[in-house]
Amino acid sequence: MLSEFENVERSFGAEKAADLRKALHFLLRRQFVFAGDPRTGTVYNIVMDGRFRDVVDGFFDSCGYRFHRDPEAQWAGIVAMDEDVPLPRMKLDETIVMLVLAAYWQQEVNVGAVEDRAVVVATLNDLFDRYREMAQHGGGGAISPARFRDILREAAQRSLVEIGDFDDEQQDCEIRIRPMIKLISGGDALQRLERYVRSEEARFPQPAGDEA
Predict the structure, then answer these.
(1) Residues 25-50: pLDDT tens digits?
(2) Which InterPro entries match (predicted)?
(3) What order of strands is seen across the sheet that includes strand 120-123?
(4) E strand residue ranges, the chain
(5) Which of 203, 158, 206, 209 is nearest to 184 (CA)?
(6) What is the C-alpha end-to-end distance of the chain, expressed in Å?
């Protein structure tokens, strides 16, 4: 890839080449970029620029990632092509929260409850209630509200969600779920959640008389 970067520098200048390197490093750290987020304009514009498309795609392909662009929803990002690629491996509770986000996003999209750029608006309490409904059926270990919020903050670091200001009176905040969540969870988030619930029910059967 060295020659490709040298070609960019010769053709477009040292500043553009530096911007390209910064954009690639940004995505290796954060995985996704969503247009309009603070201090990400240069990153988004560079990776969406047709002049650098082959270099960007080739670089991530050589690292084992598939690069995704969605100019309509205005986001871009990388997904590992196989499990050997060293993206941060999610813990079980992180995976469950991602599936809850994705299932919520897909259900809202299905009924047309979606904003510009395929963003779905939820609240922290709505999402946690959705998780608790699932966990109650499963009977396994529960994710605490504090841990749930921590996982959402980690998702925000990856640009998967945007978290609004916390309302101390309502003990709630707005969560804007972005369409990239579908790449993290796969296209069958709801089915995967249902399979998880069934597996937990098998591991932790409810005693007779405990059902409502």
Answers:
(1) 999 999 999 998 999 999 999 999 99
(2) JetB
(3) 120-123, 174-177, 161-163
(4) 32-34, 65-70, 75-80, 120-123, 161-163, 174-177
(5) 158
(6) 61
